[in-house]
Amino acid sequence: MAAKAVTGRLTRKIRDRNQPMAEIEDNVDRELFRNFEKLRQLRIEHRDLDEIISRLALDMHVDEIQMKRLKKRKLLLKDQIARVESLLIPDLNA
Fold first, then answer.
1. How far apart are CA 40 and CA 13, in angstroms?
2. 89: DSSP letter
3. In whole angstroms, what is the distance from residue 81 CA to residue 39 CA?
4. For 21-36, what is each residue's pLDDT tens digit?
């Protein structure tokens, strides 16, 4: 049974190595597109939160706890944006 599992893993590794270059490039392109799309969505949400916070800041009767939560969410989005942007930077060793 163990020999069968090892053989199966080796066969998969060999198949992965023999994967056509076009298919590998296609996978990379898909991943790159997903990252760009994620970055776009995060930036939109960050901008929308910025507008909401700006409008709420004009209200004298704003809920301070709600405002803090919105600002915290905005900071988390900023961190996520930075992470995704760093994924899009090409590896210098490549």
1. 35
2. S
3. 6
4. 666 667 777 888 899 9
